[in-house]
Write a structure and sequence with these properties.
This protein is globular. It has helices at 15-24, 35-39, 52-61, 64-74, 84-88, 191-204; strands spanning 5-8, 29-32, 43-46, 79-82, 92-93, 99-100, 108-111, 121-128, 144-150, 152-155, 163-167, 169-177, 180-183. It has a nine-stranded mixed β-sheet. 27% of the residues lie in helices and 30% in strands.
């Protein structure tokens, strides 16, 4: 069965890289900011690189927030947030002041302490995966490498089916709550493990 996969274009992500990874596992996708095309999506991917406040401004200015709310919260369309896109799914960020996110999951975004670690956190690092979660179906339960590049991390003190990576402290590397999933790392830059995660998102959600 064909799937209408939409990669949301708000001018803040590795759009082509994600589309190419999806092609490698046999799926075509549409990169768009067109509200009518987003409305027709079976799966949504919200990528992102850059500043939290700028990301929210872009979503507002393009008129995308209302359609995301309708699709994700009402129609229960699966969505995968990647890097900044994952952070925007949370409640708030301290980047450039205090900024509200989309509020889909109970996560808050704060900066790494650059007195303790080198910031940004760049490169491959291990995620303590749980293969009972849909994103990690057919992964083993041993730590798994994914590629990161970020200065801010999500923290959460409730259960959102999160998996953790450690850099300074444990931070949320991924989560999945019903139809909503997020990855702080870049699966499109994570080689075989990234392909497996995309395949799980498309096939299991």
């Amino acid at each position: 069965m064909s799937k209408n996969i939409v990669i949301v274009d708000y001018s803040m992500g590795n759009l082509g890289s994600i589309q190419n990874m999806l092609k490698k596992i046999g799926y075509s996708s549409t990169i768009t900011s067109d509200i009518k095309k987003i409305e027709l999506a079976d799966k949504l991917i919200l990528p992102g690189v850059g500043h939290f406040d700028r990301g929210m401004e872009q979503l507002h200015s393009l008129g995308i927030i209302d359609v995301l709310n309708q699709k994700v919260l009402q129609a229960k369309t699966p969505v995968l947030g990647i890097c900044l896109g994952m952070q925007l799914l949370g409640i708030s960020s301290t980047e450039d002041g205090n900024n509200n996110g989309l509020g889909y999951v109970n996560g808050h975004v704060v900066k790494f302490d650059n007195n303790l670690v080198k910031v940004p956190h760049v490169g491959f690092n291990q995620v303590k995966v749980n293969n009972e979660f849909k994103l990690f179906h057919d992964f083993n339960n041993e730590p798994t490498d994914f590629y990161f590049t970020h200065s801010y991390r999500m923290i959460c003190d409730v259960n959102i089916n999160q998996c953790y990576c450690n850099y300074q402290n444990d931070f949320v590397a991924s989560f999945e709550q019903n139809n909503i999933a997020g990855a702080q790392f870049h699966p499109e830059l994570s080689q075989t493990n990234g392909l497996k995660l995309f395949k799980n998102f498309i096939g299991k959600f």
